[in-house]
Structure formats: structure tokens, C-alpha cells
Amino acid sequence: MLSAYASGGVTTVARPAIAKISADFRQLLDKPSDIYFPALNWETTNMQSLMVSVMDGVVFVYYNTDHNIGVAYSVGV
Predict the structure, then answer these.
(1) Chain mean position to CA 71
(2) Which of 18, 66, 70, 67 lies closest to 45, judged by CA?
(3) Per the structure, how many domains does the chain have?
(4) Cα–Cα nearest to 51, from 30, 27, 70, 76
(5) Which of 49, 58, 52, 63 has the alpha carbon at shortest distance from 77?
(6) Beta carbons of 44 and 9 less than 8 angstroms apart
(7) Strand, coil or helix: what is 46?
(8) Bridge partners (DSSP) listed for residue 52
(9) What would the DSSP string read from start to end of 4-37?
(10) For residues 63 and 72, what is the distance between their CA atoms, to the nearest angstrom?
(11) How far apart are CA 47 and CA 67, in angstroms?
(12) What is the largest CA-CA distance in the chain?
């Protein structure tokens, strides 16, 4: 997630993005591509707690925006 650092309950504008990464997780192999967000009417740019997991080739993204919780998934990333 690309975001300006903030603490203390400050609202920030987050930009979720995706890119290929090296096997040691230390270097991006491509330029990050933005994921269009917010996409749903309850989502805001105040994104928090973004987590990603991969199970059986499916990428799951868990996120929180203004105390609402969402789950997105993708196959063939």
C-alpha cells in the first residue's frame, strides 16, 4: 500500500497498489500499478489494516475503511 505516514488517528489517502517482488521480498521487480479504489459506495480512502494472503493460487486482500471491513480476491494476478 502506498500511503503518507500518519499516526494518532489522522486520516490519510491510501493508494493500494500491486507489483512483482523478488523472492527475498526486498526489491520490487516492476513499477507498482494502482488498484482502483474506492470501488464500492461504503469504501473511503481512509484505508487501514491492509493484509494479503494467498491460498490455492487465489490472492485475498483484507482491508478496513472507516470501521467497515472488506475482502477482495483475484485469480490470475
Answers:
(1) 10
(2) 66
(3) 1
(4) 70
(5) 58
(6) no
(7) coil
(8) 61
(9) ----SS----EE-EE--B-TTSSSBSS--EEPP-
(10) 8
(11) 9
(12) 37
- Interacting residues of 6 by C-beta distance below 8 A, sequence separation 6+: 12
- Of 9 and 5, the one with more pLDDT: 9
Q: Give CA 21 to chain center in angstroms.
A: 15
And the C-alpha cell for 34?
494502482
Q: What is the pLDDT of residues 14-66, one digit of tens each?
A: 667 778 889 998 999 999 887 766 677 777 767 777 778 888 878 787 777 77
* The three three-digit cell numbers of residue 7, written as one number: 499516526
Residue type, 43: E
Domain region containing 51 = 3-73
Question: Residue 53 is placed in which grid cell?
Answer: 494472503
Grid cell locating 36: 482502483
